[in-house]
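are you around this afternoon, could really use another pair of eyes. what follows is a protein written twice so to speak, once as letters and once as structure tokens for the fold. i want to understand how the tokens follow from the sequence so walk me through it. anything you notice is useful, everything is just below.
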Amino acid sequence: MQVEINSVWRLAGIDGFDDGLYRVLACYPDYATVVLFQIVEGSKLQRPAAVDLPFFLRQAEEGAISLEKYPKPHYQLSDDSNVPSAHLQKRDIRLEQIKDLISDPWFLLKLVTDSRSKIVAEHAKKQGVYVQALYRSLNLYWKYGQEYNALLPAYTNSGGAGKARVAGKVKRGAPIRLSTPSLAAPPSVNTSEKDKTIFLKAMKRFGMKGKKVTFRKVYDQMLTEFYAKELIAADLEGRVALVPQYRAFLYWIKRLIPQQELILKQTSPGDFERNRRGLRGAATDHTAVPGSCFELDATVLDVHVVSEFRRNHVLGRPTVYCVVDKESRMIVGIHVSLEYASWRAGRQALVNAFISKKEYCARYGIEIEDSEWPCHHIPQRLLCDRGEFICQDAENLAVPLIGHLSIAPPYRAELKGIVEHRFNILNEKLIHDLMGTTRGRHYIRGDKDPRMEAVLTLDEVNTLLIDAVLEHNSQVFESLAGQCSLLIEEGVAPTPINYWNLHLLKQRHALSTADEAIIRARLLPADWVSMTSKGVRLNDDMYYESDHPDFEDWKVIARAGSSWRLEARIDQDNSSFIFVRFRPDEGFSPCWLRKASKSFDERHHADILFFEDWKKLEKHRAKPTAKSVERHQRRKEITQNAQNESAKAPPLKSKAEKIRGMKERRRQSVLEARVTAEQADDMCHAPEMPEFDKLNDERRKNVVSLLKRKKGESK
């Protein structure tokens, strides 16, 4: 073990030495001696002492002596340029007085070996100073580490800074300054210890109840509560009440109550943890690589959307789910729907995050390559809200797929700060500039109703959000530059997509993948469909077909009257396909819409629900009109008139007599109708007949007859 000069040790139970801290001033190995100086508080002068070096080392190994730290005063740590010149001059005078002593390497050995040494007294006489003054300078020099600044005067500790003083009869503080000579300042009193106690009581009763309260309001309530007698007496006697002034109250409150305690007591625990507590670290302290943790959260978008079927029908504000990689800030998945924040909508966001984005973007008319949004992975851990995922379905479906599900405490949005900040970015970059936006604030009387400006459908908002996400993933974030040295080593910009790709290339990630069918079967909502002669039936208007080898045979069986139910998985975002389990021992097979149902292709589930609701309402409104009643009355009159006329005819003896000769009578009726029609035509066009005959003669002259084949010739 080494014994270093100026090191501080704690001695306990050593003969000849008081328990306490000691500084090593010098070490003389040739004489097996260590010179120690006891560090004490106060102005009592101390003399160095010698201890045997082997004994010192042995005691340190046995634990009787332990190494400690002794902090230096703050005024000794200042730069010389910040120290007053008077203080520096005082230091230099003291240093000049002891310079010859401390520069002698054998001075300490002589001082500790000869208890009657007069070396200090002789030097004091030579310098012309008292020996006590010389010892006082040496004590400061030894106590604070044998440095020149140890001789600086401790004037900053003078005057009792920060200590309360007992008030006398003379009024303390600046008097009230009045410009008018005829006016006199009212009398006032000093703040007593009793007043300070009342100040604390008033703050605890009125100002520290979990909400922000002004000091002026607390002061007024304090006067009416604790100084009521003085106020009443002063009012009856017509004098100024002798109560503490507001400035005195404010001064002592700031001195008696620590500011951090005041902040804590004037807010709720949740608000303090979210917005006021000291930050203990960064959001990425517990995520080493991409995929260590995904954050999922939902918010209601600040924009109203309309129906795709009828654009003058406002559907309200949709809910957007966002999945963000905590380490790289990469938005790995989104989901927009009219569903409220729930497990039903949240798992759709997980499906989007875990599968390829190329087909998803193509559905909205955005052609991308897989490298432009290379996120189709499952994380090591998912951090989400308790509202959506603290349910049995999430535990049974998401946990086996992801591995670990972390539920954030209620009212602690800052624990998902990365995804919360992504919502702010999307609002600033896109949402607050759209038609129908609420701009993140409540409706103010006089403002134009944002619902009247809504023109965008759910799919159009989704398309714009995809573009905003792609832009975000390529945006430079300065905070990413300091997280990992790979970006600097490779010379690439600190963007989320570069951070993601680089870590995947270097195999520094915690991501995994799974087959898309398995992901959809695990996370998509379960539903029941029917096997019919037209295919797989979801509702009255939507039928699906499949490339399963037995699909056509099953349609034949279903047409014979043997339809049956099948388990299915429905994608809320896209009605173009579903996944169906045709047999209990098989997985889920994809099915797609038939041509007859193509009007619902790529429709959102919300649009399907709107269509079904519209049909129900139209069916409910379908009632006979006045024209329908008129037609019904006309049919009744015609029928009744026919029955009356039939009754006037002579009765027939048999059925055969009634139907005999029916074909001949039908032919005769046709001829009579033709003759009647020709007569009517002749009467209408009789004046124009010569002109028509002349025109027909001219046309006949221009007609060329084609050769006809003789009967019996082969074709």
In short: The radius of gyration is 49 Å. The chain has a mean pLDDT of 84. The first strand starts at residue 8 and ends at 11.
